[in-house]
Amino acid sequence: MDWKSCQNNRLIKAVQKDEPLISSLQQGSEKKLKTNKLLPLTEVTAATKISIIYDALRELLEALALEKGYKVYNHECYCSFLREIMKEDVLAEEFDKWRKLRNSINYYGKEIYVEEAKIVLPEIEKLIEKVKKMF
Questions:
Q1: Listed residue (92, 62, 121, 129) closest to 113, CA to CA
Q2: Digit-coded pLDDT (tens) for 102-120
Q3: Which phi and psi angles does 14 have, rounded to 5°?
Q4: Residue 86 has what DSSP assignment?
Q5: Which residues neighbour 130 within 8 Å (Cβ) at sequence distance 6 or greater?
Q6: Contacts by residues 61-67 (CB-CB < 8 Å, ≥ 24 positions apart)
Q7: Domains along the chain?
Q8: Which side of the chain, N or C, has fewer Cβ within a 10 Å radius?
Q9: Which residues pair with 13 in a beta bridge?
Q10: Rounded-to-integer distance, Cα 89 and Cα 106, Å
Q11: E-assigned strands of 18-125?
């Protein structure tokens, strides 16, 4: 979905910059990252760890969008935000890949094994670090 479609479908709106909310979202993201580090990686926790770290990333993107004057109501529209507003095509593709994986876990019962999580978790952490540098 492109940015224009997100606008037409009212999945985004222009908002005033809200520093306290932006800060709160950044802190919430950090707490999720710390929580994720506390969980050992096992067959039981692998999918949960991916969902938690994805949510930390999404929360950070929400803060970034708010900093740029947008409220985004749809995870897919964060891809458009990254691509069209931030001019970050590669980051948009990376986020979309992890969005689809998280959706597969949360909504379609995809099994995640430790070996896959060992690859995915550091990749999402790298994306989080790239997003942090965009503030």
A1: 121
A2: 999 999 999 999 999 999 9
A3: -75, 135
A4: S
A5: 91
A6: 61/95, 61/131, 62/25, 63/21, 63/22, 63/23, 63/25, 63/26, 63/29, 63/135, 64/131, 64/134, 64/135, 65/12, 66/15, 66/17, 66/18, 66/21, 66/22, 66/25, 67/17, 67/22, 67/135
A7: 3-132 (1.20.120.330)
A8: C
A9: 71
A10: 25
A11: 70-72
The two tokens of residue 121 are 């978790």
Tens of pLDDT, residue by residue over 6-59, are 999 999 999 999 999 999 999 999 999 999 999 999 999 999 999 999 999 999
- Amino acid (one-letter) located at 94: E
**Is the Cβ–Cβ distance between 95 and 127 less than 8 Å?**
yes
Each as own residue / partner, the long-range contacts of residues 126-129 (CB below 8 Å, 24 or more positions apart, any chain) are 127/57, 127/91, 127/94, 127/95, 127/98, 128/29, 128/33, 128/53, 128/56, 128/57, 128/60
> The tokens of 124 are what?
């999402």
Residues 106-118, buried b or exposed e (16+ Cβ, 10 A)?
Answer: eeeeeebeeeebe
